[in-house]
Amino acid sequence: xxxKPQPSPFAPLVRAVRxxxxxxxxxxxxxxxxxxxxxGPLFVxxxxxxxxxxxxxxxxxHLLGTNGQGQDVLAQxxxxxxxxxxxxxxxxxxxxxxxxxxxxxxxxxxxxxDGVLSGLFNVFLxxxxxxxxxxxAAYLPSGPFTLGxxxxxxxxxxxxxxxxxxxxxxxxxxxxxxxxxMGESRWRILxxxxxxxxxxxxxAQVIGSTVYAIGAQVGLEFLGLGDVSAVTWGTNLYWAQNDxxxxxxxxxxxxxxxxxxxxxxxxxxxxxxxxxxVTNPRLRLERSWREFLDARGHEASRSTPVxxxxx
Amino acid sequence: MNHLLKRLFFYAGAAWTALTLNFFLPRLMPGDPATALFAxxxxxxxxxxxxxxxxxxxxxxxxxxxxxxxxxxxxxxGDLGVSIAYFxxxxxxxxxxxxxxxxxxxxxxxxxxxxxxxxxxxxxAWWRRGWVxxxxxxFFAFLGAFPYFWLAMVALWIFGFTLGWFPLGHAYADDMAPxxxxxxxxxxxxxAALPLLTVVLATLGGWLLTMRNAMVAxxxxxxVNLARAKGLPPRxxxxxxxxxxxxxxxxxxxxxALGYVLGGSLLTEVVFSYPGQGYLLVQAVRNQDYPLMQGIxxxxxxxVLAANWLVDVLTWWLDARTRxxxx
Lengths: 311, 327
Prior knowledge:
The complex is a heterodimer.
Chain A: H1 11-19, H2 21-43, H3 73-109, H4 111-126, H5 129-139, H6 144-171, H7 174-181, H8 186-194, H9 199-222, H10 233-242, H11 255-279, H12 281-295
Helix pairs in contact in A: 1-2, 1-11, 2-3, 2-11, 3-4, 3-6, 3-9, 4-6, 5-6, 6-9, 7-8, 9-10, 9-11, 11-12
Chain B: H1 2-28, H2 33-41, H3 47-56, H4 64-76, H5 91-126, H6 131-145, H7 148-162, H8 182-219, H9 222-229, H10 234-271, H11 277-286, H12 290-318, H13 320-326
C-alpha cells in the first residue's frame, strides 16, 4: 500500500496478471467463463425445452446428458453461467459498497459514530449467516432481487470490519494530517485522501466477495429459495437433488455444475492471491528475501521477511 | 471480568437484534401472513382452533408494540409457538427431535477438523516449504472452492452409490431400535461417516492456514530461538513452545467460524436427509411452516451466540493479555 494516490485500482491487477503465473491462470479461467456467459447462450438451445428421455447419460447428441426432466444439461449449464455470474458479480460489488459505507466512516470519525456502526457490523458478524438468509428469503417473493438482497444483508459485515481497520491506520498517516492542517473538509479528506489509498484493498474485497456471493447464492438456490423455474447453477443442483438424480447415479446432472462453480471460485482466488502478492509489500519481498538469504548460505525457511531494503 | 461482562452485553444485544428481526420479518412480508397461514388450514381447523393458533403465533389485533413485547416475553419463557406442519406440537418439541443429531454432526465435525487442521498447520510451518506446506494449502483452497453441499453430493455418489460402502442417508437404519447398544452406535457412525467427511474436508483448510501463519510468526520470536539454543528436543520446541503459543488465533477464530461451519453442516444434512436442524429448517421452509422456521433460526442464533461467549471466556482464560488490558 503506497501512500501516494494510485492512478487506477486496476493497474496492480494488470501487474499481477503479468508477473504472477497463478494470477494469469486465474484471469484466464475467469475470461473463459465470462466469454461463456456472454456468448454461450447463443450457441445452445432453449435450456427449458424437453429434448429427450430423462436422465440419459452423456452422448454425442447431448454432450452432458439430460436431467431428471429430460432437459439438456449442457444448455442449462451455459445459460446458468450467465445468470449466476451476473448476480455473483453484482452482489460482490454491492457487498463491498455497503461495507465501505459503514466501515470507512466508522474508522474515520471514531467516537460515537464508530460505536454505533461497529456495534452494527459486529452484530451481523456473529449472527449465523445461512439461517438468517433462509428466514429472510422464505418471506420474500423468490427471484434474483430477493437473493441479491439476502446475500448483501448477510455478507457485508466482514468487509465493513476490514475497511474500518484500514481507515483507522490511514487516518494516522502524515499526509492525512497534512490535509487536515491545510483546512480540507472531512468529507474531502475521506473522498480524495483516504479512499484512493484503499482501492487495492477494495478490489481485493470485491474479488473475495464475489466468491462468497456465488457460493452463497448457489447454496440458497440449492435449498429451493431461489426462483426454481429459472435456470441458474443453483437451481440446476436443486433439481438434481429433487429428482433424486443422486440416488440413481446420474452424476452428469450435478458434477459439471459443481466443477464450474469451483473453477470460477478458484480462478477468482488465484487472481486475488496474485494481486495480494503485488500489492502487499511483505509478500512482495518474501521471494527476494529468500533468494537473498539463500545466496549467503543462510537458512531462510524459518524467517518471515519484513519490509526493508536489502538490495 | 469486566471484559467478559461487556462481551455478554454485546451478545445480548445481538440476540435482541435477531429476535427483533424475527418479529418484524413476517410482518413486512407482502400480504398478510395470518391469511396465508389460515388458508393452509382451511377446513382442517375449527374457528376456535384458528383463533388459538393466531394467538399462539402472536398475531393478535393488539397494537404492534404490544405484540412485540408479548413475543419477547414468550421467547424468554422458551415458548416459540406451535408448528404448523407438526400441529399441535410446540416448536421447541420439534426442534428437540433434531437437536442431538445436529450437535453430534456439527460438534464432532468442528472438533475433528480443528484438531487435524491445526496439527497439519503446525507441520506445515515447522517444515516450511516441505511437501505439506507446498501442497496441502493449495489442495484445500481448491477443495474450498467447491460448494460445501456439492462435496457432500459427490461423496454420496462415490462412496454411497457407486462403491456402496456407506448408507445413502438418514441417521440410522429404519430397522434399528435406538438405544445404547453396540449395533446401534456402530450404525449411527456408519451413517455419520460421509456427512462428517464432507464437513471436515470443507473446513479443514481454514484451520490449517490460520495455524500455519500463526506458527510462522511465533517461530521467529526470541523465546523460540532461546529454546532452540538451549538444545531442547525439536519436538518440545515445536509443540510445547511454538504450537502452544500459536494456538490462540485459531481459538479466537473458532467462534467466528462456528456460524459458517454450522451453515455448511445444515446444507450437508439436507443432502444426506440427516434429521438435524438443517433438514428440519428446509422442510419447514418448503411446508411454509413459519413458526418452526423462525423457531429454528432463533434457536441456532442463540446457540451460536452462547458458543461465541464461551470462546471469549476461553480466550480470556488462556491469554493473559486480554486480562491485563481489561484491568
